């Protein structure tokens, strides 16, 4: 299994965007923050975008709050700089509408109840807006040179693939039959309102209620002129993700489900011609500093118990055996992933005894990510 050279990746001026992706609960936020901090303290000018609703990143970075505006992280050692921000899904959606529509049309859209629901809770909106915010940051960096590295912590979705699928899902929604049906009265003269369409509209009124249906029709009619703009922006961001200056790091835990999801993501990235940097396996069980196997430990414990049923040493041997079995299982899972994807460089980060809650903790994670020797299995 090739080793992921994290410092070479961070130091390379050709690396402009790092996207940390993977299933939920595998440590993407911590990994993103640690990489961003390490890059900044090695001389890069970095912004890290997190979509973590638990707000752990703000706490770890000593910032009272994070929002949709990049804020400097205090305590970062020179020569670089680090800003951090947290995605505000609705505010980002509002910014897109305001930039694409006239003030009057934007007001109609922003005040519409159906838009409020769509921008706040529609499935896939968070992932789409994460891509939108990435595009905004990239355009800002190109314009004024504020940042030379953007680190993205992808949303904690049910599936790691949601981030890549979001633009297509939103386009499918906007192109769907239901939306076309709602647009039919606005797009054509009254004579085109056929009897069949009237029947469907009456049925929808009974199901949704007249006011809800009117709100939806008003929203869709106002939003219709923006559909093309949304699609174009999604296509540009998707192309940005395929650019050679972008690198994806797949983050996983040493568990079967997480590594299976990581394998799906690696295959999807390959299919979409997106640049894969490597795999980060978080919270791996440290190998005990002894050659005593699980079987030997159990056998020794059994012999001690035969002599003394309350033997403390026997209990310790059984605990050692349990720990060795966990290490062996994790090693097997990683080996199986490596056999299926031998070209993917990997970094293994051992589990810490405490949670990461400050910059020192993030620095330690960065050291473990970059120092292959310290995590040797």
UniProtKB/TrEMBL annotation:
Every ArsA/GET3 Anion-transporting ATPase-like domain range: 17-289
Top-level taxonomic group: Bacteria
GO molecular function, one term: ATP hydrolysis activity
Pfam family, one: ArsA_ATPase
Protein's name in the database: ArsA family ATPase
Source species of the chain: Nocardioides seonyuensis
């Amino acid at each position: 299994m090739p080793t992921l050279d994290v410092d070479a990746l961070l130091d390379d001026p050709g690396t402009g965007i790092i996207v940390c992706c993977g299933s939920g609960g595998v440590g993407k936020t911590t990994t993103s923050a640690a990489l961003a901090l390490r890059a900044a303290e090695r001389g890069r000018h970095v912004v890290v975008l997190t979509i973590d609703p638990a707000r752990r990143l703000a706490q770890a970075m000593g910032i009272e709050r994070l929002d949709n505006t990049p804020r400097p992280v205090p305590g970062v050692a020179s020569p670089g700089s680090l800003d951090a921000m947290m995605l505000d899904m609705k505010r980002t959606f509002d910014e897109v509408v305001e930039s694409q529509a006239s003030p009057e049309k934007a007001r109609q859209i922003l005040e519409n109840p159906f838009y409020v629901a769509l921008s706040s809770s529609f499935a896939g909106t968070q992932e789409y807006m994460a891509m939108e915010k990435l595009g905004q940051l990239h355009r800002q960096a190109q314009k004024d040179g504020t940042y030379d590295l953007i680190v993205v912590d992808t949303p904690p979705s049910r599936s790691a693939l949601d981030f890549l699928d979001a633009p297509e899902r939103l386009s499918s929604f906007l192109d769907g039959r239901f939306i076309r049906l709602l647009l039919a009265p606005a797009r054509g003269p009254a004579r085109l309102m056929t009897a069949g369409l009237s029947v469907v509209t009456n049925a929808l009124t009974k199901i949704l209620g007249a006011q809800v249906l009117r709100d939806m029709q008003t929203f869709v009619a106002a939003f219709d002129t923006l559909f093309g703009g949304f699609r174009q922006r999604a296509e540009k961001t998707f192309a940005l993700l395929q650019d050679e200056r972008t690198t994806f790091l797949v983050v996983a835990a040493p568990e079967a489900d997480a590594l299976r999801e990581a394998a799906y993501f690696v295959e999807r990235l390959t299919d979409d011609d997106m640049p894969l940097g490597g795999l980060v396996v978080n919270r791996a069980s440290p190998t005990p500093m002894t050659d005593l196997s699980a079987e030997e430990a159990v056998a020794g414990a059994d012999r001690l118990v035969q002599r003394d049923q309350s033997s403390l040493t026997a209990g310790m041997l059984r605990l050692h055996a349990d720990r060795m079995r966990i290490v062996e299982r994790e090693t097997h899972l990683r080996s199986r992933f490596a056999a299926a994807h031998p070209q993917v460089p990997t970094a293994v980060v051992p589990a810490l005894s405490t949670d990461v809650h400050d910059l020192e903790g993030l620095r330690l994670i960065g050291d473990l990510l970059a120092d292959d020797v310290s995590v040797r299995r």
